[in-house]
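Lab notebook, bench 4. We co-purified these components, and the gel suggests they stay together. Before we commit to crystallization screens, I want a quick structural picture of the whole thing.
Request: model the full complex, all chains together.
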Amino acid sequence: MASLWEYANPRKFIATSDRVLPWVGALALACLVLGLVWGFFFTPEDYRQGASVKIIYLHVPAALMAINAWLMMLVASLIWIVRRHHVSALAARAAAPVGAVMTIIALATGAFWGQPIWGTWWVWDPRLTSFLILLLFYLGYIALWSAIENDDAAADLTSVLCLVGSVFALLSRYAVLFWNQGLHQGASLSLDKKENVADVFYLPLLVCIAGFVLLFVALVLLRTQTEIRARRMRALLARERMG
Amino acid sequence: MRAILIRDLRLAIRAGGGFGLGLAFFLIVVVLVPFAVGPRGDLHSVIAPGILWLGALLACLLSLDRIFALDYEDGSLDLLATAPLPLEALVTLKALAHWLTTGLPLVLVAPFLAVLLNMPAAGYAPLLQALALGTPALSVIGTFGAALTVGVKRGGLLLSLLVLPLYVPTLIFGAEAARRGAEGLDHGMPLAMLAGITCGTIALLPFASAAVVRVSLR
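Here is the predicted assembly.
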């Protein structure tokens, strides 16, 4: 039985991800095209929101991935701190910009939807505010990575920041909940059938979510590969200069 | 331990230590706000707790990069790290020194500046309590941010970006306690949450800061 830790070997990681990447990428594209076309053109308009309800197919998956990307970075940072696998640190680094963009997509689509429906681009609602704070965490994390020259030191510092940041992000989540009552509706997705969004919207939404997850996986694999190769190239150049 | 604390306090108070900088900044913020929002006393008394908290927070932020930068540049941080004193204790002392030279003076002048902003009389005690309970958390969190950026040249902007989201919960509960106090509402709950944040950060964050300083000195 192959162990998961085998992929801590950069060569093995690149070999496997090379094999997987085309499939994941193609599947992501297929899901996104299917989900978005289905959602945008073949679902009815909401009786109160009209066509603007369709932004849900971008907004919800992006928001979901914005949080899950941070969770993935948290796990990767923990693996780096405990087992010191370089691939893990690089995967966390690779995921950060993707997560930041997902956060921006969620905030932007939310603003576009909020303008006609709530009559405002922005309110200091708990959910919106937590996402803004999450974006700040992403930006700080990315900035710290690029500010420190030594790769190992940067990996250490950013993982500690990720751990501490996660605690503070959770704290902020509940602090803003206490600070302001929300305008944002409750969760659209729920295991409770009554709470859940209606089936006509739900099925294409699920396809879109699958598409975003696959897209995230593909992007992170690709970016991690790039990071590994860039680091290898730097090592080769350094060796050449020495010799 | 005491020697390090006294050394840090002396360095901060003497010329060029930036002791007055935070206070001056706080004063400037509070004095300029009425010019910016217009001479409406009723408006001032509504926003007074928030402005005072914001001023105190920004004044704290201003002096954060001094916590480790000078010691790192002249090499005394290496000496302190190899001293028998655990690094966790050193980091805590640094945070304490920062609070004594920045946070405490801010707390003490806040009531006088509150007069300028026409704050209701009921608000003074809650404001003082909230600031006294909240500013230690600002110093401890700031020390963590300063430790993260100690090896970065001109890391001031990066430091602010890193610390900004970490300050949010403290600011929310602190300003909320002060606001509720000023409006004559019960402010016990946010005050308790604020105290919880302060105790939690003092208890846990020095370990993270020390780990980070160790990485930077490697």
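Residues 126 and 175 of chain A are 9 Å apart (CA to CA). Worth comparing against the SEC data before the next meeting. The mean pLDDT of chain A is 87.
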